[in-house]
Each structure stands twice: as C-alpha cells, then as structure tokens.
C-alpha cells in the first residue's frame, strides 16, 4: 500500500527531542522527529496517564501532543521542524497560566 | 405485553424510560437515529438552578428539586453501570461584565428569593475582591457576580450513556432508527408505527425534543416548541483550575474548558460562523484573560427545545389519558426530576398538582381571555 518516496532527502535539520539530538530532513514534521528519536512515547494522556506516540500523522488523533519550544499541547504532526527546535514530553494536561 | 412506550432516546426520554422501568413497567424506548437533532449531545452540562424560574416559582422549585435528586441519580447510575457522570455541585457563579449586568443580576436574585417564599433561596452578590478568592486570574472587566450554592455540572455524554445502559440492563427495550411514521390514539390504548416496527401500549410518553411539536397533536396534546441555537467552544485540556462552574464557562472533569453561551433564533440551522463564536471567545477572555492562551480544539452547535415562555411543558392528554408529554431545554439539570419524580407520576397515571403550571394550556388564548 505504501511506498518509499523516491526523493530520499538528507537529514540535515538538527532538533532536540527530550534533549537528544535528532537529524531530520528539511520539511519534516516534529512528529517525524519524535518517531526517529526512538523514544517509547512522547506524552501521557491527561485522564489515565496512558503513554502515546504519534499515530495518525494528519492532525486528527491528537496522540502526538508535545511541548514544542515551550508551548504545551502542540500537535507535533502539524508542526514543521526548524533548526534547534526543542520537542519535549507532554505530561498529561497542560497548566493554564492565570 | 408492553406497559409504556417512550418516544425519544435523548436525555429526557432516557431518564423517563429508566424511571418507568424502575417502577416495574415493561418499557420500550424509541430513538429516531443519527439524523435527529439530538440536543442531548450538544448540552453544555450545567446542573443549573440560579437562573431558572424568575417570575415562575414553580419552575424554580422543580429545578431545585431536580438538583437535589441528582446525587442519588449519579450514585445509582454509577453503582448500576460503572459510569461516572462526573457530577459536582460546589455552587456556581454568574459573572457580570458591566455595572448594568450586575444591577440586573442583583435585581433578579432578589426577586428569586422573594418568590421562593418559605422555601428559601440562598445567594450572594459578590464583587471582584471576593470573587478573586474563589476564581483564579479573574479579568479586570469583571465587575461582580452572583453565587448560589445549588448549582453544579455533570458530563452530558456519560449521563446519556449511563441512562441508556441502566435502562437496558434493567430489561428495558431500546429500539434505534425508530422514527415515528404514524400513530393511533384511544384512551389508554396507543399504537405507534415506526421505521423499526409497530408498538402498542396503554401509556405513551412524548419526549422527542423538537419532534414533539409534530407528534403531540396526534395524541391530543400540544407542544409548541421551537429550536433555539446555542454554540459551544472547547479548549484543549488543562489541569483543573476552575473550582466551580459559571453560566458560560465550565471546566470538565477531563480538563477541557467549555465556553458558551449564545442564543440564536434561526430555525433548524446548525451552521457555525465566526461572529457568534468570536463573541463567545471574547466574553470568556474578558472574564479570564488566561483562557486566551489555550487553543480551541472543537466547536459545536445544538438546538435548544424552547417553549414560548422558556419553561418546560408537562401534560397528560385529556382526550387520550395515558399519553404524556415532556419538553424542556435542560435535559441535564432536570434528569434527576425526570427519572425519580416525573416517571413515578407517569407510572401512577397522574401528574401531581405541582406540575399543573407546566401545562401547555398556559398558551391557550381562551385561558388568557
């Protein structure tokens, strides 16, 4: 069903996933970086604490929520990587900041 | 042998059907299907007392009564189904964003207390210094608010699921995709034709929301309800920060903030467009500026089931005794009363006099003359 894209792009963009350096191709998503990092999960759900990794990769399932450059609850699959981006674990629900 | 047919599988119909089943009646619950407007699935989730029944103390008492039945309903549903309806009744606040709103609110609360008579009505008008001790990060636009200890909130979807599960677990028969296509009525003898078959029983309860307007005349009843659109915005989940619900802002048990409330008279139209959504968002951010930092992840609209005077309608047909109608826009708030007070009346075959003021006869021109 799926085939590898013919234009294999070099992994040239450096990002940090939970503090670990990961190289990803230009134009890739933060969710791709999370998957490349090999981490077993990137968030725990707010209600049951269940560990999750990116799943749908198209903005629907919200399982890729991560703290990206200090902003909590971002859908990593909808965010394009930038050099030096910091992608961190989303622990349950974010805090509101009154 | 079926004892009762309930038409409408939303919060009102499911609560009554469960109540009838618990009275020992063999009960069939007919549900239209996913083409229905399903106000129950758009409900904001307040168990709300403080704004209900101004100028109509019987409605204030009915609502208060339902709120006081709620803990027993929630416990019963949790025990029977394992479903937590997330009921919390810490009291509630209606925020005022202008002096005019505050004065109007104070006047309404005073009138509510006066009309409650010996029944009593506790409330407190609060200014921002007092509100800030309860509510974190209150915005400078808030000039005050009214608090009553009777208010609360619950999850409409777990409630709907729990009512259905308790009903079917108790032996009730749920029939989906059963839009009513025809009916014949005689005193204590009803036949209801649906897309899923024909059903007969000596009792029938019309709880079909907006569908009641069309159904009621076939049973010698009148249910002049109209749709009123309400819209809701939902934020991403956040750690629990709001200790109690407000009229137009509440935080669910899972952490989402629900933002309402709007009223639009636009008929059977569920569309959403920025102007009303923006108004909801602006009001929420004025109340709590920190809400502006949260992402909106969902929005929906639903149609309230509104009588001309905004109050519920309950009736038994005079022409065809055994046919009852229940109409309201507060399926969550009134679930306690519907399951535990109204259903036993219907099972006995007579509505108590406390429900007399809720008859649709109040809309008859002859009555006013």
Automatic annotation (TrEMBL), chain A:
Question: Which keywords fit this entry according to its UniProt record?
Answer: Oxidoreductase
Highest taxon of the lineage: Bacteria
Tell me which InterPro entries the record gives: 2Fe-2S-bd_N, 2Fe-2S_ferredoxin-like_sf
Q: Provide the species name.
A: Roseomonas alba
Q: Does the keyword Oxidoreductase apply?
A: yes
Descriptive protein name: (2Fe-2S)-binding protein
One Pfam family here: Fer2_4
TrEMBL record, chain B:
Residues that span the membrane, as ranges: none
Q: Cite the entry's keywords alphabetically.
A: Oxidoreductase
Q: Which Pfam families match?
A: DAO
Q: Cross-referenced InterPro entries, in alphabetical order?
A: FAD-dep_OxRdtase (IPR006076), FAD/NAD-bd_sf (IPR036188)
- This protein's superkingdom? Bacteria
The residues covered by the FAD dependent oxidoreductase domain are: 3-343
Q: Which residues belong to the signal peptide in this entry? A: none
UniProt cross-references to PANTHER family, sorted A to Z:
FAD-DEPENDENT OXIDOREDUCTASE DOMAIN-CONTAINING PROTEIN 1, SARCOSINE DEHYDROGENASE-RELATED
Protein's name according to its UniProt entry: FAD-binding oxidoreductase
Species whose genome carries this gene:
Roseomonas alba
